[in-house]
């Protein structure tokens, strides 16, 4: 039951958003939760580190079971509550194989587009010490990675999802990254299949219910990913 659950989370955090979409898809909307402030380092507070000694969110409890790491939370929810809400891992073996492939392939998006490009621009450098040659290389890496996913979406066809005909765990994993990149200025007109996918999935009930609240209040001031 949702009332037995508890989630610590941060707004705009891709890992937190993944867990929150999964909770909504499994029918646990309204679960007890607490929004923490990264600016105030509340993720290092005792009430968080009691669940996750790394001081990271999402930190999740289901009764007396503690699960941390967004990938593990999503996997746990589907394994324990597989017959409830949306079936996030298809039964059809071919669709299941494709969903599993995309789920783990998303590590490439995290490592290439998020960490190599977005983090380099946002956290690792300033305008004064940013190496434009390195940045150009990383833009190209990001573009190349996103074009692979554009190809996957083109192959799936309009109205489908990233790995199957129905919404799956691959979408739970992938969409928050895509939405984060859009917020950073990614121009989806360069990726028409992903654009159609994004505009459809952003209106899905689970996504709307868990949309980062500060995104609704504060327009993005970043447009550096428009160069991708």
Automatic annotation (TrEMBL):
One of its GO terms (biological process) is L-phenylalanine catabolic process. Residues 3-85 form the GST N-terminal domain. Gene3D superfamilies: 1.20.1050.10, Glutaredoxin. It comes from the Eukaryota. Residues 92-224 form the GST C-terminal domain. Pfam families: GST_C (PF00043), GST_N_3 (PF13417). CDD domains: GST_C_family (cd00299), GST_N_family (cd00570). GO terms for molecular function: glutathione transferase activity; maleylacetoacetate isomerase activity. GO terms for cellular component: mitochondrion. This is Glutathione S-transferase. It comes from Patella caerulea.
